[in-house]
Amino acid sequence: MSLPLIPAKRYFTIGEVAQLCGVKPHVLRYWEQEFTQLRPMKRRGNRRYYQHHEVLMIRRIRDLLYDEGFTISGARNKLREAPTLWQVQEGGYVGEMAEGPSFAALHLSPESAQVQAEQAESQLLHLSSDMHTLHKELCEIRALLAGDS
Question: How far apart are CA 112 and CA 28, in angstroms?
Answer without folding.
Answer: 24
